[in-house]
Amino acid sequence: MKHFSVLQVAVLCCSLISSQLWAQKPALPDTAINPVFKGMAWRNIGPTRGGRSLGSAGSPGRKLEYYFGAVGGGLWKTTDGGLTWAPVTDGQLKSSSVGAVAVAESNPDIVYIGTGETQLRGNIMQGDGVYKSTDAGKKWTNIGLTNTQAIARVRVHPTNPNIVYVAALGHPYGPNEERGVFRTTDGGTTWKKVLYKGDQAGAVDIIIDRKNPNVLYASIWQVYRKPWKMWGGGGASGLFKSTDGGDTWTELTRRPGMPKGTVGKIGVTVSPVDPNRVWAIVEAEDGGVYRSDDAGMTWKHVNNERKLRQRAFYYSRIYADPLDKNGVYCLNVDFFKSTDGGVKFDKSIKVPHGDNHDLWIDPADSTRMIASNDGGAAVSVNGGKSWTDENFPTAQLYHITVTNDFPYHVAGAQQDNSTVAMASEGWGNKLARGNSLKKGEWTYEVGGGESGYIAQDPKNPDIFYAGSQGALLTRYNRATGQVRDVQVYPRFFSGEPASALPERWQWTYPIVFSPKDPNRLYVCSQHVWVSTNEGQSWEKISPDLTLADTATLGKTGGVITMDMNGPEIYATVFALAPSYHDVNTIWAGSDDGLIHITRDHGKTWQKITPPDMPKHTRVSLIEASRHKPGTAYVAAKRYQMDDRAPYIWKTDDYGKTWTKIITGLRADDYAHAIREDITKPGLLYAGMEHGVYVSFNDGANWQPLQLKLPDTQIADIQVTEKDIVIGTHGRSVYVLDDVSPVREFTPELASKPVHLFKPYYAVRRVQPAVFQYYLGKQADSVKIEILDAAGTVIQSFTGNKPTYPKVDEDDDSEPGKPVVKLPTTAAGLNRYEWDLRYPGSTYFKGLIMWGARPTSGPLALPGQYQVRLTAGGQSSTQPFEIRLDPRLTNVTNADVQEQFKLAMKLRDQTSKANDAVVRIRAVKEKLAKQPDSPASKKLKEQLSVIEENLYQIRNQSGQDPLNFPIKLNNRLAALWRSVESGDAKPTDASYNVYNELSADLDRQMAELDALLKTKTVKSIGL
User: Fold this and answer.
1) Is 929 left (phi over 0), alpha (psi -120 to 50) or beta?
2) What residues pair up with 78 in beta bridges, in sequence order?
3) Of residues 286, 302, 294, the one with CA closest to residue 270
4) What pLDDT band is residue 11 in, cutting at 50, 70 and 90?
């Protein structure tokens, strides 16, 4: 943490007919996705930068193979030493949070992971036990301990991969029995709890003595969390040792030399070189690093530096060097090494990201390691001198917004990083649809910090307001780069309880503009504040809208170490929703379970909390309806009260009555966000802890909209005119493009043999035309025709296969070869993208050109078009529009009409040249079959001269134009490319060169026509 800075057809149809039937059914599995939607897919757009990781591991025998667990994004693996990473658990885990990883040394195909987080910061995620793979991460099976929720460590016996120990912290938010150290001796078929100190204390560390694997050291930590508090230390906390493989344990906490007073969290390690040497990093008043040289019988306090033990609840991990008896590493905000047995940690190891949580070192090579931190994981092969990049899309976003730009940008605040904004698709005149943004592509910060809301000024798209911890509120101008702090009450706080704060600002507090008055900007503490002058001044327009229970406003951290920064600041207004219909109506929800409304802009407020909303329910998000004035939807959560049930309500009468709308949701999948479709009333989207749901009937029932999206927390949702955008807390940002199948869905649609969905508008060079069509069964053929405004067919594509091999547009093995993409005939939802181009010029086999792709025709003009789908003997037509890029403020339709006209001429001239080459080659081929004569020989020579003037016949490979001069057809095609290089009126020089090249072509064509009229040609029938 930085400091300041959517089923088989019958099933669905039946299920949608009766909500009562739905009430009897559990949430539908993603494998039952309706065929109407199964062709849709979520597209990850980045950012490609990592989020928090608590566990990583490698293999001694596979030098390039490593794993790391993303606490909100599953398990990731590399097989090239960390240069590239890929997720390996998607679709197989029921929890996105992987907190511990272990690879069996004796068989690296066997990998175990423990799920859930044990570094108990404010936004931790829970798991569902232990998973195992026996094929190096390809397939995963849950092997138990499903109710542990939070696993700190998984340790595998060095020579027997079936003996595994798990350090389970247990429920972070309540007492439970699945705590302590668990052991399996049969690879996870059965488990035995071997160390247990009560239902309020769990294991947070365990280490195996490599010299004698029957010797184990483990630590127990008594700790709990509530929304307003984390409290750890004392009670059953302590350090323990077993010498019989975990059958029995001896406590070491009070051995000579150990701290005299209360202890909290403890990390422990044993030297592989000398098993008598054991280190512990102990949270205590006189805590720090303790070392034993007699296997834990006595101890010496060797280091008490705060840098090693600050924020003990979030760190407290220590590791022995596998080859150096005096080498030991300690992880905290920073990464330190000692070479004198732990007395001085004077070597600082620089890693790509701070907040360090795990370290794996090759037992045979201490220079080879992988480390986990709040930015993911990185690999080093030189003892930490350098590390691989953490460039994978596991970013943990809080809230997101979509901008008013074109294409729209998605902006969000990333945990332990900065805010980030990125284009949703094409940027720099390049189509990016279907491709993730790569590292180094265009992103920017918008002020604020890691945890806040972001709001774009409706009046000026360059102005962003963004928040973060400590009440930070910035106004950022992306045009100038200027950032200004415009806090409501700039009294900075840290280390203070909520009770000491005049204004209680949560870790992530609302920042929203009024949809009815773009001058009104709102933010919330326990009060609602408004500014009408861009944050220069603020007016309080509410009383305290929370319970403000003094029992929830006290100190937090623990018996030993306090930790008060923002996540535990409680009794705040956590959700705010100004009305889309009335400028004076505002909905407000608190994190302690209250909902209020004002209809006179704050003069009076009415409490409208749903009667069945329990106390201490965090109102995560309120969605005020765009379609009905008195309607609002509420997503709320109680997981921090050890209640993982989903809570979603709606009202249609300004909160006088409420209806809980959770039918069809997974029983343990709690809600973070709910959004209403901006075009279709009653179409709702819910962002849950484990994925996305959709409701077609105003919440009466829900079904998954996962579409192969990995299990991950959906922290926020935004709906645009054509897309759905989700900000995840562990897998960055996804876009579901072109959601017309969702918006047009009816129970009857899936029974249609053919349906063509209405396309969204296309934009030249940025958004292709996307045509989505549904086939009730596989067709023999599918034809897609594009018609202009006059009804003339300008393009036609016919496919007769359910699938086609992937086409590589960048394949330069035959540069002039046409790229052909055909519509598919598969049953279900299909999509076809038209690149907005007319047919290209004539192609002949072996055509090689540089600086041009003449088989791709001119771009269609802005205007009205139609698409006609023909399949299964039926035709369907839909209108669509092509638009000019709205960012081109000084380009007119007349300009692009001139461009189109010249481009079409150049296409036709290029075709004329290419057609001539084809004709010449046909004549020469006929001549070659005739008896040779002086006349035919001379004719062939004359034809060859023209052919070689038109095309460089010596081009045999893609690089040959560097060796042999390009000829007329290539010059024409290159000019065509130049003319179409951007939307603008062609340059004067373009017309000049066109005239020159056209004159040259006319001369060549006149000579060819004359030759083709000779007796020699006529004699061979040409």
Assistant:
1) alpha
2) 66
3) 294
4) very low
Q: Rounded to an integer, what distance in angstroms lies between the CA atom of residue 619 and that of residue 574?
A: 6
Confidence band (pLDDT; 50, 70, 90) for 1014? confident
- Please answer whether residues 367 and 323 qualify as being in contact, where contact means their C-beta atoms are separated by less than 8 angstroms: no
pLDDT in tens, 73-103: 999 999 999 999 999 999 999 999 999 999 9
Specify the pLDDT at position 562. 95
- How far apart CA 841 and CA 854 sit, in angstroms, is 6
Q: Rounded to an integer, what distance in angstroms lies between the CA atom of residue 65 and that of residue 46?
A: 24
Which residue matches tokens 């993730």? 436
Sequence length of the chain is: 1022
CB 631 within 8 A of CB 651: yes
3-state secondary structure labels for all residues of 483-517:
EEECCCCCCCCCCCCHHHCCCCCCCCCCEEECCCC
Give the phi and the psi of residue 996 in degrees, each rounded to 5: -65, -50
Mean pLDDT to the nearest integer, 675-680: 98
Q: What is the DSSP letter of 630?
A: T
C-alpha to C-alpha distances, 528 to 524, 590, 632, 1022, nearest whole angstrom? 5, 11, 19, 87
**CA-to-CA distance for 345 and 348, rounded, in angstroms?**
8
Q: Which residue, 1017, 980, 978, 975, is CA-closest to 1000?
A: 975
Pairing state between β 632-638 and 66-70: unpaired
| φ and ψ at residue 997, rounded to 5 degrees | -65, -35
- Residue 31: pLDDT band (50, 70, 90) is very low
Local confidence band at 1016 (pLDDT 50, 70, 90 cut-offs): confident
Alpha-carbon span 447 to 464, nearest angstrom: 7
**Tokens representing residue 995 in the block:** 């005239």
